[in-house]
Amino acid sequence: MVDSLLMIKAEEILAKIEEGKSVEYENVIIYGDLDLHRLDLPQSKNKRKAIKSIIKIEYSIIKGDVFFDHASFSQLVDFDGTVFTKAANFSDSHFQEDAGFSESQFQGEANFSRAQFSTEANFSRARFNDADFGRSRFDKNLHLSNAKIYTLKLSDAVFTDGSSIYLKDFNFNRIVVRWNTIKDHLPFNGSVYLTLVKNFRNLEQFKDEDDCYYQYRKEKQARTKRPFSKAADGMMWLACGYGVRPAHTVFLSIAIIVLFTGIYWSGHALEFESLNQSSHLAASTGVSLGNALYFSSMEFLGRSPQNLMISEGFEYLTVMETLIGWLLMALFLVTLSKVMLR
What we know:
With about 350 residues, this protein is an alpha/beta fold. It has 2 domains: about 1-225; about 245-340, Helix Hairpins, CATH 1.10.287. It has helices at about 10-20, 180, 190-200, 205-225, 225-240, 245-265, 290-300, 315-340, and strands at about 5-10, 25, 30, 35, 50, 55-60, 60-65, 65, 70-75, 75-80, 85, 90, 95, 100, 105, 110, 115, 120, 125-130, 130, 135-140, 140-145, 150-155, 160, 165, 170-175, 270-275, 280-285, 310. It has a 7-stranded parallel sheet. It has a 7-stranded parallel sheet with strand order 4-8-12-16-20-23-26. Strands 1-3-7-11-15-19 form a 6-stranded parallel sheet. β27 (about 270-275) and β28 form a beta hairpin. The longest helix has 26 residues, at about 315-340. It starts with 5 loop residues before the first strand and ends with a helix. The model is unreliable at about 275-285 (pLDDT under 50).
């Protein structure tokens, strides 16, 4: 099949680009390096080589290096289904129209660092070894659905408002990126989120792992229609932030202590122990809000406060608060150990 393809010299394509003519090929083999540095072309205001040609090389094989870096493409760039057998360098280039690389194969270096994509960047079903999109800018969408890659670098990439990154069925070994870079641009897909959680854990980016998992659980909770599951998720969020936010447990514990303080104080459920008699006679007056807060805090911790006692008929409140306190303290320790000890 390959032997029957038409053979084209790279110089032929470069000559068309230099003259501003359309470059449209399909099912060809291109020999030689496609090197824009050889061409005498005007520069854009950002000191990039201004390319006015439509470049459409589909389902072909390029038997040489591609140096399309530091270029500004004002027309369509389409390499759908094309095999880059050597380096493909598009670093610091500006794609003003769609950039089509779906089903492409990058057998050598794939360098798109600092590139700017003003419209769609389509790499769906593409195949890479490693690809560098570090510090690239995406004004629209980055499509990587069904693509396969060993390492994808998105360090310091910029996704503008309204842009998205599509990773459905994306097969990768690792993605080098911070969660804050992509969190507002990732359409919800449970398997994608959980794969990213594993990726962050393998890279020892534990804060990114926790933040990604937290958002996954929130998105999942918002979408579930089963009342029991929704209520259970809501309790997990409130109690411990889905197991990755120990601060939630602290705030809930404070709220529980304050709640029981209000009940004890407003219900006149506390009494001072009498110091003048051998039996514990109650003096039901003089219990302040501060006393009630102290009593509630001690009961939450499972300790009996001195000089204060619960009035007859309210004993069940202390049992309830102590039980809740033990559960929340255990939950806090488990959540804290998960976040801190790894």
